Structure formats: C-alpha cells, structure tokens
Amino acid sequence: MTFDPNKIPIWLRRTEAQQEKDRALQAQLKQAMGPGIRPNPTEQHLLRANAVRISAEAHLRHLRALTNPKPEHVASAEAQLAEALAMQGDYQAAAELHPHPEHATRFRAIAEAIERDDNEPACDCVMEKKHDEAQNREIFLPNQIVSEMVFSPKHGKLMPLVKCVKCGDLNVKAAPPDLSTRLSRIAEEHRKAKGARTSGA
After folding, report:
1. Which of 87, 115, 143 is the last residue of a domain?
2. Which side of the chain, N or C, has fewer Cβ within a 10 Å radius?
C-alpha cells in the first residue's frame, strides 16, 4: 500500500524545523543508549512526558484553530496536556488547565506535598494493632503507603508520594524505612520477572 502523508492527522504532522529537532534528539538518544548506557527511570519518565506534551499541544492547537470544535474533544486534549505537564512536575499549571475539578484538586495537593519539608513529621494518626497468627504476637499496621511515584522538580527526580491511609496526609519524600524495604523487594521481583520474560523470548 502506498504511503499517503495526507492521511496523517494534521496535529501529528511535523514542520521541517521540528523534524530536524526530532532527528537531533534521536541521534542524541542513540548515543546515550549505547551498550551499557541506558536512561535512568527519571530520564525515561521525562522523555515520555515530553513526547506526550508535544503531541497534546499540537492536538490542542489544531482543535482551537477549528471554527466549531466539539467541546468534549477540546476537554480531552486539555486533560491530556495537563497530565503531561504533571508528569514533568508542573502541577500548578496542570491544575489550572485540567477540565475536571477532581484532577485539578489532586494536582494542587501533589504540588503542596512536594513543597513540604521532607523532615516534617507525618500526621498524628495512631497505628492500629493486629494479632499476627503466624508469629503469635501483636504487630502495628503502618499508616503510610507510597501512593505513586511523581517527578519532583525540588528533588530533581522521581520521588515517592507518601500518603496516610487514614487522613490522606501527603508528602513527597524518601519512603519510610519499612516502605523502602518493601519497594526494593518489589523492584527486585519486577527485574527478575522482566529478565525471565526477556530470556524466554
């Protein structure tokens, strides 16, 4: 089948200047991703966020240039761009742009959590006790969980969003020791599973 460039949606088409920047970026990535050299998780996250942002911006420009764009299409493009901005750590801009209030509220809460002092004590929620049948002793159930990993401009990398399961208190900081151990174990299991899939392919 013959390739027809006119079938590419207009918001995905690239100018010559943009294509030249794309080629320069690809050359840089090929050099960076040589043998034994790979982007770290933060770099991978930001590369993906930048790609999503470029696509969403182009889509939104296209829609706004139309005479009568469908409101739901504009809202969808704004939401996509807001998510990309949040991935890049600009949570305030994402909150202002996102058409859905619940997402905007979440972005503002994450922005505030990033700005909190990492050493600020957690909330005063009391940990619950539970009887561990296997060990036949009382144990404390941790209140805090890592809700997700977010990019923090303050820290310059992906950081845990630590959340209290009782009151919802948020802080972007290094995970507490018990959670760090659990996260390390999950990451190691993930690496092993990924290695097994790769070797089995």
Report:
1. 115
2. N
